[in-house]
Predict the structure.
Amino acid sequence: MNSEVIIAKVKQYPLAFICGGVLLVAVVLTFLRSDRLPSLETEYEQTLTESDLMNTNRENSVNLEENLAKMQEIVTGIDSRLIDSEAATDNYRYLLQMAEKSGVNLMDPSRGQVIGAKAAGMNEYPLVQFSVSVSGPYKNVLIFLYELRTGKYIVRIESLTMSPSNQTAIGSDEVRASIKFSGLGIPPEKEPEEKKKK
């Protein structure tokens, strides 16, 4: 087969020879670049993940300023409900007001004790633990517990022991309750930078 015959065939079927050439080039390129296929698939998946994250962020950023203002309002509300463990008089007055409102007698209130020591370098909210005893009609003790749980401070009842009052006549509903509860305390202030350097 000489060159004249090949040229004649190319002139007779030009489209077939062009398509064959393109196909040959595509096969060679595919073979040469096949080692990059796994890395390209990984890159494609990473791009899809980033695209999904960007779409999620775009959706979440709607009304961002309003949501931030609401969050700051919530944080301010929480900060106003923190217990100052150093303010023993205020804490006693608070418990006394709740006892008077509930119609129970307040006995043996403890001073707030900070538990869970602050980790080094952290500015976390400490737990302040109290124990108190109250006596009065059963219904009023329950009212006191409700007031304690839903009052100004954010607290959790840790333990509750209830027994009939010693001075109770038979058939009376007078009880004595020993309550241990803890609440979120004001976090310690960060040390000033000048103090740390010394």
In short: The longest helix spans residues 37-60. Strands lie at 105-107, 113-115, 127-137, 155-164, 174-184. The two ends are 96 Å apart (CA to CA). Residues 190-196 have pLDDT under 50 and may be disordered.
